[in-house]
Amino acid sequence: MAMLLDGPPSTIGDLSIRDSDLLNVASTEGIDLSAKLQLAATDIGNTVDSMLMSIPPASVGVRQRMPSLRHIAVTQQLKLWHTFSTLRMVYQDVYYSRLNDRYQAKMKMFREEESRALDDLRTVGVGVVFDPLPQALAPSFAMVQSTGSGGTVYVAVSYVNQRGEQGLSSIPVEVDISSGSVATVSLAALADNASGWNLFAGISPDAIYQQNTQALDPLAAVTIAPDALSTGPAPGQGQRANILYPLPRRILRG
Description:
Blueprint: H1 12-18, H2 22-29, H3 33-53, E1 72-73, H4 76-98, H5 101-124, E2 126-128, E3 140-145, E4 151-161, E5 173-177, E6 181-186, E7 194-204, E8 207-210, E9 222-224, E10 243-245
Antiparallel strand pairs: 1-2, 2-10, 3-6, 4-5, 4-7, 6-9, 7-8
Helix pairs in contact: 3-4, 4-5
């Protein structure tokens, strides 16, 4: 799964699965669902950060550092918490704007679901990644003369750490390659703890595949052409948690 700081864990599609009338409500009431997803993610991040700071040091292994927010991976429990938190925010907003009983009922229902999801997360624990990688930034491109026929390709990259773990790939970028040219791809930036990177390319943003067989050197530049793409693995969903940390039921106050 992705890291919590990579962006909202849930999508509008995830919200719609839980509430089939959501898109109609958002359209009618002028609700920006993307903004609500981001707001809920920010609130969840703040809550998780407070919970992590309240973990007694004795509960953390001697060889392990206390996790911070950048170490938190998105698990199914955290994603579900975010989904219900966002839905509760949506109906809370429209209820207090319209004082509509139907909206109030949904607000209360999703608040209860949000609470249950948080309880599940506390019980199971948050997913912690020891050596977290951020989502990669879009790469850099340059055109080189060749005998290629040209065309359009979609390219993304991901960072790889020394453990061989792969972070979330960048958003695919469209690259138009003119006839008689090929494109060279290189990193525009590298995460501090990344030791290499993977290159993904394809003729559709929904069908891109790894072009290298082993992690590339950070300074490497790779040549791609629309008619010479390989079909390796598709991009992954980011790093998996190395361990689960149970969260306290109460946040300690100083």
